[in-house]
Amino acid sequence: MTTPHSNQPRRALLLTGASRGIGHATVKRFSAAGWRVITCSRHAFPENCPWEMGPEDHIQVDLADSDGTRSAIAEIKQRLDNGELHALVNNAAISPKANGGTRLSSIETTLDVWNHVFRVNFFAPIMLARGLVEELKAAKGSVVNVTSIAGSRVHPFAGAAYATSKAALAAHFGPLGIRVNAIAPGEIDTSILSPGTEKIVEQIPLHRLGTPDEVAKIIYVLCTDTSSYVNGAEIHINGGQHV
Fold this sequence. Notes:
The chain is α/β, with parallel strands linked by helices. The protein contains seven helices and seven strands.
């Protein structure tokens, strides 16, 4: 299929964690620009979603399951036009909480939880990037890892396993023409906000939460020629919270 403005095949995005918040806003941002968006989630595509192309471009996969992730990679390869993937956005992540939504410390986090968090937050993005490297290379594509404000320092609402795993994401794809960058959203108005966030908002210079679309716009820029020489960067989207 082509866009209304070009005879070139549509650019393709693979997005994990697309069902809500930043992921959902990213689907809308790229779709509005004429991109084909292939989504991955451990849930089936929701029947009540109004997105017309959603069901045929959705792959149900549990990213904590390495065998399932390998099978999903093989299916993605078959679905891509011309063997080209223009962008991979690793947005899916888990941040386990204790009772009442409080964060789990490294002492309280069980080994099983550590393993689960790292499989989803760290190993799955690496598996996807490595498994689809030829398709990314063919398109001179871009990888964006959605990390967190918790990735570089301890945060009151994000546990140690989440912070460590997301901060560990790194890239060595530059020599292949594949740019790899990360974004670190701060307090974004989504359903995963923890109780007590309003106290943090008082300390943010802009005195408000960010919106999912404000994050999606930066993701989009990092996947286009506007950022053609941006590689290995981490973009903080936090309203000046660390100023």
